[in-house]
Specification:
Radius of gyration: 27 Å
Largest sheet: 7 strands, mixed
Bound molecules: thiamine diphosphate
Strand content: 5-15%
Shape: globular
Strand order of the largest sheet: 7-6-8-9-11-10-15
């Protein structure tokens, strides 16, 4: 692929290098800017991959926001940030946009170190209201008048606890906070929950929508006549809305002034509305209706979930281009998705729980086959864990599947609600390890460390698909207590993986290869990097021992005694942070048992790792097959030197 390829920019977009260029245009030109911006995103994402549907859905909002607000002085906070491609392009990163998500290139999410326009780093959902409110309150306390603060949040992200916490606080802080609710009825999968139904009710209420424009006009006129008029307008508007909706408005009950719903694809109208809202003080919410994938027919009319992040595709036909290989081993997530169904057919207590990652975790398979036993609880990791705990008190066995990095959200729930009560909940942590192009916000590198110190918690990781099945089987046996199984993003290693289930004795590792001088202890999938390195060792005539430890907790002490009695050079490898991780567990064992050995730990160093491919990042972090080979060679060379000395 040509790295320096230039992508056509269109007549207006080619002149926009900053938001001030955009603001020089006439409001009637915004539609054309939107068309060109949309095409630019399609041209590049179709070739480079990345998030897609969400950015297309907010093109008009993005253009209107930067047109009306004085960014970057006015603070614009994107929620999740997967929809901020248009924002990046309009804010001075147009030429670099083709490097999006590539190592050394632009991040796929807003990042403060990348641009002054990226007011808040994101990747995880539902933080925008709290962050923007923090900015607004600080701004007010600094005496800055007329500075605006805008949070753009999707209907999916609005379902999280933190979003409600932000609204609840904002309702009593009199700041210039505008929340734009970008309602496309979708999370990655269809949005779920009562709030979603409520939003649909507002959006489809014919009477309300007819009257809405009248209210808007009255408001627009009154709002320019001072604070008292504002109060009257608010009362009139509130009463009308309440009568028409037949219920109190959720947002207004939190002291927000609610406006909309409006068509989020009419850039001119959105700009006009935003202009009016700028003059209205206090917390406000503008409800915009948009369509994910807008303007690219296959995404707009097709399966929105697929087009959330479709990978590379043919922009003419809409065909998604899959890497053409021979038969691939399955993705770990699919092994999880199919195995849970097999287990659930036999064990009627099993239920599946996911916080909004139905497709991402492959729990959609169970949802299709056993909908009454599968729960998508929305973007609500904390709730997912405590909900699972509640189910467990009643004899259900929840398999709560959460991406490792999103599990960070639910740490207290794991400790306080599950582990302390020693409840039978199985945590399947998908995306454990470096995930690649999503970067620092999404790498699942802390879970081994943060689960290992929780009493009662079993911490396990399969080296391949069969091991994943066996660990899942073991986890559903009676009274195992809190049981975590972490596995990486991407494919496993076995073509024939549907083996019969075998119980794994808790806290036991297994010997993969006997050897002399050096023992390598692996945890989870990186055991396969050791297998690969073994090919080189064999060629070199080196006989290196390899143990797949399977559990970081409880650790296989019996096996470790055997290992440390035989070897005085040990290498540990894990797809997680070195601080407090699996290698640290081995060091603790050594210290507790007075073993002396040279230990080299391979894994993720103590810094945030940015984006790149998984292979590139594992290489950079020094724990791929080559790193293992080098480490073994160095250890042997050091030994020779010390013997010679
Ligand atoms: C805490 C957290 N959980 C899950 C995700 C994964 N995720 C990324 S985007 C997304 C859907 C967001 O839906 P919405 O806010 O409605 O935005 P849309 O994609 O519809 O524009 C989800 C679940 C995440 N980024 N953060």
């Amino acid at each position: 692929m040509n790295k320096n390829k230039k992508y056509p920019q269109g007549k207006l977009l080619s002149q926009i290098n900053s938001t001030s260029d955009l603001r020089k245009l006439n409001i009637n030109q915004l539609k054309q800017v939107c068309d060109e911006l949309r095409q630019y995103i399609i041209d590049i994402v179709s070739e480079k991959g990345g998030h897609f549907g969400a950015s297309l859905g907010v093109v008009e909002l993005t253009v209107a926001l930067h047109y009306i607000f004085n960014t970057p002085r006015d603070q614009l906070v994107w929620d999740v940030g997967h929809q901020a491609y248009g924002h990046k392009i309009l804010t001075g990163r147009k030429e670099q946009f083709s490097t999006n998500r590539i190592k050394g290139g632009l991040s796929g999410f807003p990042k403060r170190s990348e641009s002054v326009y990226d007011t808040f780093g994101v990747g995880h959902a539902s933080t925008s209201i709290s962050a923007a409110l923090g900015m607004a309150v600080a701004s007010k306390s600094n005496g800055e008048k007329n500075r605006q603060h805008v949070a753009v949040i999707g209907d999916g992200s609005m379902s999280a606890g933190i979003a409600f916490e932000g609204l609840n606080h904002a309702g009593v802080e009199n700041t210039n906070l505008l929340v734009i609710l970008n309602d496309n009825c979708m999370s990655i999968d269809p949005a779920v929950g009562a709030l979603k139904e409520y939003l649909t009710d507002i959006s489809t209420s014919k009477t309300y929508n007819r009257a809405r424009n009248k209210i808007w006009k009255i408001l627009g006129k009154i709002s320019r006549f001072g604070p008292n008029a504002q109060g009257i307008a608010k009362k009139v508007e509130g009463a009308v809305k309440t009568t028409l909706l037949g219920e109190s408005n959720y947002f207004e009950s939190l002291n927000f002034r609610y406006f909309g719903p409006i068509d989020g694809h009419d850039a001119k109208h959105v700009a006009e509305v935003l202009k009016d809202l700028k003059d209205i003080p206090g917390p406000k919410i503008l409800h915009c209706l948009t369509v994910k994938g807008k303007g690219f027919t296959p995404a707009e009319k097709g399966d929105s979930t697929t087009w959330h992040a479709p990978g590379v595709f043919d922009k003419k036909t809409g065909e998604i281009i899959c890497a053409k290989t021979q038969k691939n081993p399955p993705k770990y997530q699919d092994v999880f998705g199919e195995t849970i169904i097999e287990l659930a057919k036999k064990n009627k207590t099993i239920v599946g729980v996911t916080p909004a990652m139905l497709s991402g975790s492959s729990l959609n398979k169970m949802m299709a086959e056993m909908p009454s036993r599968t729960y998508d609880v929305g973007i609500a990791e904390q709730h997912a864990v405590t909900f699972s705990a509640g189910m467990a008190t009643q004899g259900k066995l929840p398999f709560c599947n959460i991406y490792s990095s999103f599990m960070q959200r639910a740490y207290d729930q794991v400790i306080h609600d599950v582990a302390l009560q020693n409840l039978n909940v199985v945590f399947c942590l998908d995306r454990g390890g470096l995930v690649g192009a999503d970067g620092a916000t999404h790498h699942g590198v802390f879970d081994i460390a943060f689960f290992r110190c929780v009493p009662n918690m079993i911490v396990s990781a399969p080296m391949n698909e069969q091991e994943l099945r066996n660990l899942m089987y073991t986890a559903q046996l009676p009274n195992q207590g809190p049981f975590s199984i972490r596995y990486p993003r991407g494919n496993g290693v076995l073509i024939d993986w549907r083996s019969p289930f075998k119980e794994v004795k808790i806290g036991t590792g297994r010997k993969i290869n006997d050897g002399e001088e050096i023992a390598i202890l692996s945890f989870g999938h990186p055991g396969n990097f050791v297998l690969k390195a073994q090919e080189t060792f064999e060629k070199d005539g080196l006989n290196i021992a390899h143990y797949d430890m399977r559990f970081a907790k409880p650790i296989d002490e019996k096996l470790l005694h055997t290992i440390f009695k035989k070897f005085n050079m040990v290498i540990t490898i894990e797809d997680g942070c070195l601080q407090a991780g699996f290698g640290s567990a081995i060091l603790e064992f050594m210290a507790n048992n007075n073993y002396q050995a040279t230990v080299k730990r391979l894994g993720v160093p103590d810094k945030f790792i940015h984006h790149g491919s998984q292979e590139e990042l594992r290489h950079d972090c020094n724990y791929d097959s080559n790193a293992i080979i080098t480490t073994v060679h160095e250890a042997l060379a050091n030994k020779l030197v010390s013997q010679a000395g």
